[in-house]
């Protein structure tokens, strides 16, 4: 095998590989000899089929099989001997091949860049801390009590108030014509829940059982059903019953209804759950900070093919969003493409950097962790758990997709453990405040 490097520029490598014709033909002859020992063809005893006949019948298939194997083995050997780490599947192209002539082919690939380990102790991060107060616990208990309230018929003749439930029949019309999916019977509507079109519920406040009301509304311009968006409608409503909620006490009975023996046990569980929820949000915010720091330190060149692949995925989503009428950014097409190409570059660089940190520090995703991830995924599809398990068992790409976020989180946790992290007390509102849109795009 003769290997000639024909390109070495940046992350691009190209090799021309030549395998002597004698190597190929020799291997074909060897395989024919092996076949001849056991071959069976009509008119010949086992093992007595002439080699020339075997070659005529099987020679081309053997040649193709051997060429494919030698190309794969030689390509891999060329890469391994030079210690190269391909960024993606190398492109192999046979440039010359004919019986009796040397086999020539080219191998094009992009290699992963050299990535220096960051100085972990120089990374400074801030972790938000929220103290769970008694007031927060009580607010949660009040919501739980409200959610478990029972409805009861209101006193006869009572006018419906916000917070009451009215049982109604309604028929919606536009220009005096009923429209599809615009009618219902015995529909229970909580006034003040904002479950219906703006203005609908307000016009039923004060109604009594037996009343009939025409509710006039305008469908919002951004309404999901395009044939209704922006149009004026009238709903002919019959109020059949007014119901009100009976308050639920925050006591041991509420605790028992939620699987706890006492109210104190429920309060403890609520506090722990809030602490866990706040810790998860705080970790996500800290991770966002860390990724920004790492992105600033990622001063290596990323393989163009990986950037293009990531950009294509992002741009497809952007294009789909635009077709749905969503706003995806400012500026003309080229400006938008550059913006999202920058995002793609950032994601690729962060992915490579985290992968290298994980590799050099021997961060592994255990089989138990993978099993738990598959179990969690299976729970999303009740009744189809077995199919989900089989899908991941038989699909390497699916397993890789499931493993990637686990590996990233373990690597992030490793870096945070090594970094300088200071805690900053904040309010719940500050912790839960939505990050800026630009920051979301970077994540």
Number of strand elements: 11
Query: What is the count of structural domains?
Result: 3
> Describe the biggest sheet?
5 strands, antiparallel
The residue-averaged pLDDT reads 91
CATH architecture label of the largest domain:
Orthogonal Bundle
Radius of gyration: 34 Å
If helices are DSSP runs of H or I spanning 4 or more residues, what is the number of helices? Answer: 12
H/E topology pattern: EEHHEEEHEEEEEHHHHHHHEHH
CATH C-level class of the largest domain: Mainly Alpha
Written overview of the protein:
The structure is a single chain. With 443 residues, the protein is of the alpha+beta class. 47% of the residues lie in helices and 21% in strands. The chain is built from twelve helices and eleven strands. The strands form three sheets. Strands 6, 7, 8, 9 and 10 form a five-stranded antiparallel β-sheet that branches. A four-stranded antiparallel β-sheet has the order 1-2-4-3. Strands 5-11 form a two-stranded parallel sheet. Strand 1 and strand 2 form a beta hairpin. Helix 6 crosses helix 7, helix 8 (367-379) packs across helix 9 and helix 9 crosses helix 10 (396-418).
């Amino acid at each position: 095998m003769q290997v000639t490097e024909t390109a070495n520029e940046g992350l691009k490598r190209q090799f021309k590989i030549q395998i002597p014709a004698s190597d190929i033909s020799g291997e074909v002859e060897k395989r024919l000899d092996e076949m001849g020992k056991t071959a069976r063809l009509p008119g010949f005893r086992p093992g007595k089929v002439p080699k020339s006949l075997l070659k005529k019948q099987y020679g081309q298939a053997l040649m193709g099989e051997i060429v494919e194997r030698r190309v794969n083995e030689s390509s891999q050997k060329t890469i391994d001997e030079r210690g190269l780490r391909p960024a993606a599947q190398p492109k192999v192209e046979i440039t010359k091949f004919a019986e009796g002539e040397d086999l020539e082919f080219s191998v094009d690939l992009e290699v992963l860049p050299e990535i220096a380990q960051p100085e972990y102790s120089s990374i400074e991060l801030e972790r938000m801390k929220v103290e769970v107060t008694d007031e927060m616990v009580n607010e949660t208990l009040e919501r739980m009590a409200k959610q478990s309230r029972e409805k009861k018929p209101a006193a006869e003749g009572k006018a419906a108030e916000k917070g009451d439930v009215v049982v109604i029949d309604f028929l919606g019309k536009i220009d005096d014509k009923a429209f599809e999916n615009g009618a219902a019977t015995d529909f229970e509507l909580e006034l003040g829940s904002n479950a219906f079109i703006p203005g609908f519920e307000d016009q039923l406040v004060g109604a009594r059982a037996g009343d009939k009301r025409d509710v006039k509304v305008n469908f919002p311009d951004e309404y999901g059903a395009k044939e209704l968006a922006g149009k004026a409608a009238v709903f002919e409503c019959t109020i059949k019953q007014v119901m009100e909620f009976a308050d639920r006490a925050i006591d041991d009975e509420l605790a028992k209804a939620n699987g706890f023996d006492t109210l104190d046990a429920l309060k403890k569980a609520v506090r722990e759950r809030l602490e866990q929820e706040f810790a998860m949000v705080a970790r996500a915010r800290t991770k966002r900070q860390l990724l920004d720091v790492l992105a600033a330190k990622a001063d290596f060149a990323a393989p163009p093919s990986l950037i293009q692949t990531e950009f294509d995925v992002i741009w497809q989503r952007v294009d789909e969003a635009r077709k749905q009428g969503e706003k995806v950014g400012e500026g003309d097409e080229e400006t938008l493409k550059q913006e999202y190409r920058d995002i793609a570059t950032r994601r690729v660089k962060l992915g490579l950097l985290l992968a290298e940190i994980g590799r050099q520090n021997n961060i592994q995703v255990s089989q138990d962790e993978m099993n738990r991830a598959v179990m969690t995924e299976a729970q999303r599809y009740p009744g189809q758990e077995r199919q989900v398990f089989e899908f991941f068992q038989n699909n390497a790409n699916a397993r890789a997709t499931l493993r990637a976020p686990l590996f990233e989180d373990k690597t992030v946790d490793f870096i945070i453990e090594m970094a300088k992290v200071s805690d900053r007390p904040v309010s719940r509102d500050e912790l839960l405040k939505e990050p800026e849109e630009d920051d979301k795009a970077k994540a």
